[in-house]
Write the structure tokens for this entry.
Amino acid sequence: MTKIALIILNWKQPQLTIDTVESIFKTKNRGLSYHIFIVDNGSPDDSIAKFNAKYGKNKKVTILNTGSNLGYAGGNNFGLKAAIKQKFDYLLVANNDILVAPDFLQKLFDASKKFPNSILTPKIYFAPGFEYHKNRYSKDEIGKVIWAVGSRMDWKNIYGTNIAIDEVDHGQYDNVDLNIDFISGCCFLVSTKILKEIGLFDERYYLYMEDADLTTRAKKAGYELRLVPESVIWHCNSGSSNPGSSLQDYFISRNRMLFGFSYASLRTKFALFRESIKFLFTGSEWRKTAIKDFYLGHFGKGSWK
């Protein structure tokens, strides 16, 4: 029986996390057993108390407390290390704001046997009501609006985008060999063997682009990134920050530099350098701080308040 560990990171959103866990409990599987690791990232609210009350006696759930906010990278690594120590065969990283189809895990597992040297992502839809353009779709299209079927990187500018975002799914990506540059941390399945070889999330990123870094490392190590279109989940897309927020301004500005200088061409690195000098004079305060922190090597949480 193959053992799969599901890592779900929580930060001050206990009910959202519980909804995700309850959705996973409704899955139907064969040939595998799964165990859920709820990792609370040092939430200052009553998250841990709620999880203990709900799942404290549930043998399929382990509740972990990091003790402080380790960011997305560190928080997930906390759970991944616990699962690896317990010798799980596969590891599934999932956001705490997803709802899953009953066979989503089975379909990912089946694909893992067919493509053992791959990191696998399900087809991710917007959960009904969470679309960016709510008035664009007819009633029968709701629930089939794509959030991601993998992601691509604009290597000239170091900006990532989800493939097919906002498109209605008509099966147009089901039999296509997509050129996936990276896979979102929203949900992916990876074998423990692969993760032991390429390493866990790079905690220098703390928040944003750590998923791009991890799966780019996998590609460079010779592994494939694959969509499993038969596996479906819905993303409630709650997010921990608003687009254009100071938090995004800081971490994306700094982490674009870190990612670009790690993987981009010499030409793109030079363009990033020129752009960063401009930001030091004309950028927002948090963007200026981000650029300074990159050059000073202040990673992890860095100067974020």
